[in-house]
Structures are given as structure tokens and as C-alpha cells.
Amino acid sequence: MLRPLLIIVIVSNIVFAETQVAQKLREDLRRQPFDASLLTDYVKDPTPEITGIFWSEFQAASDRTTEGRERKQAIAAALCRMRVDDGRASAYLASLAEEAINSDAPVVFTVGKDGRQVKGKISPAFDKWSKEHGLKTEDAVRLELFTYTQDMLQLIYLSDPKYIYLFRRGLESHNLGVALTCVYALARLNDLSSLPWILAATKRNADSPEFVEGVAIGLTTFVGESATGEIRRVFAGTPALAAYEKFIASRLAHRNGK
């Protein structure tokens, strides 16, 4: 009787050397100060090696500092653009957008008699809010006007309908920049069912000419004859519709060379 032959194979750990491109990618991802524009070429031609590095750097990245946050956000956005996201990268982008939407900060700038914000003149309410939240006023301004807008845009670029609910919530934001960004997001998705939510936001901020004009511009992003008809029906008799018609007429005149 033959005894079973026991074969033991010992495989040593094999470390594959990274290509020069991969090494350069790691350097760019860890560069200080961080420059997100350096990731563009890698995203255009993603190899398994490149996507693997993006994932490892995403998992290792800390967002406790402003630069760390920007780095992790850029990596997450890159993973989504390369279409290798398993849900973690987009979830991270959504969490940043939610933070922007959930901010309870009042309007940053003082509002003049004409309803328009006086650029450069911080409102007393915002200054007070900044102090209550342990922030320097200039840092709070940067957060509300730049960081949060960028957070919203990164989620918009995904063009994913599953975030429509989030953009609708964002229309209620005290930050008019965030609210207007959500108008653009819903228009980019051509979600005509969200028009009543946009109308409600317009009515809430009817005393802000800048917001009404911003909504009108956002509405021009919707496409199709059915969209135009629905916008005219939902916004009938509103200043936003008047501004919308003006923008549409101006665009047509420009195309016709007038």
C-alpha cells in the first residue's frame, strides 16, 4: 500500500519593486504642500498598481488638519473618477458634503439695504458664531465660503442620483453658497422632480437678489424642452422665472451673434 505523499511547499514573501510611475505617485500624494492637480495624469491612465496605491494612501490618510482633509478628499475623488470605488470613497465625499449642509452658521457678510451682501464686511452674527465655535473669524470665513463649496462640488462631480436627497436638504442651508450649489447639483442631474424644493428655497430667500439670480442661472442648466416647460409652470409669476427668461434670451442672442 502506497503511503500518501505529503508535499510541503514553503513560499517566501516576494516583494515586487514599484515602477518609477508608482514611486512618483506616492511622492505626489505625500507632497507638502499638497497639490491635487498633480493627480490628473494618474487618473487618466489608471493601472492596477496605481489604483492600489490610491487605495492604500486613502486608508492611511488623516483628515485632522486642513491639508490632510484636502488630500484625503482629492484621493477619494480620484478613486471615484477612476471608477474603482467600492463605496468607501464616495461615502467619505458624502460625509464632507453633509458637514457643509449641516452647518448652522449665519450669513457671512452684512446685508445691505438692497438685500445684497456687502463683500468684505463680516456680519456681527457670523463673527459671534465664529467665536462661539472656537474659530478665528478668517478661518470660519474660509470654511464657509471655500471649503464647504469645494466639498459640495466634489460630490456633484459624481453625477450620482442617489445623493438627490442630500442636495434637496442642502437647499435649506443658511449658507447661500451651499444652497445655490445644490440647485446646480439637481440641475446637473436634470431632476425635474426637485423643482418644488428649489422653488421653496427661492421663496425662503426672496429678499436676496443674489440668491434669486443664482437660482435663475442654475435653472438654465436643466436640459430639454420638457425641462423648460416644467420650469415655467413651477416658477410661474416669480422673480426667478423673470430672471431665467432673461438669461435664456441673452444666451440665444449670443448664439445668433446679436
Could you walk me through the main structural features you see in this protein, from its secondary elements to its overall organization?
With 258 residues, the protein is mostly helical. Helices cover 60% and strands 3% of the residues. It has 13 helices and two strands. Strand 1 and strand 2 form a beta hairpin. It is globular and about 65 Å long. The protein starts with 19 loop residues before the first helix and ends with a helix.
Proportion of residues in β-strands: under 5%
Give the fraction of residues assigned to helices. Answer: 55-70%
The whole-angstrom Rg is 24 Å
What is the number of helical segments per DSSP (H or I, 4+ residues)?
A: 13
Question: Main sheet, how many strands, which sense, barrel?
Answer: 2 strands, antiparallel
Physical arrangement of strands within the biggest beta sheet: 1-2
Mean pLDDT: 89
What is the helix/strand order? Answer: HHHHHEEHHHHHHHH
Structural class by helix and strand composition: mainly alpha
Shape: globular
Enumerate the spans where pLDDT stays under 50 for 5 or more consecutive residues: 4-15
Distance between the termini: 99 Å
- Strand tally, please? 2
Question: Key terms for this structure?
Answer:
258 residues, two-stranded antiparallel sheet, 60% helix
List the helices and strands and how they pair.
Blueprint lengths: L19 H10 L10 H5 L3 H13 L5 H16 L6 H15 L6 E3 L5 E6 L1 H9 L4 H20 L7 H7 L5 H13 L6 H10 L4 H11 L5 H10 L4 H17 L3
Antiparallel strand pairs: 1-2
Helix pairs in contact: 1-3, 3-4, 4-5, 5-7, 7-9, 8-9, 9-11, 11-13
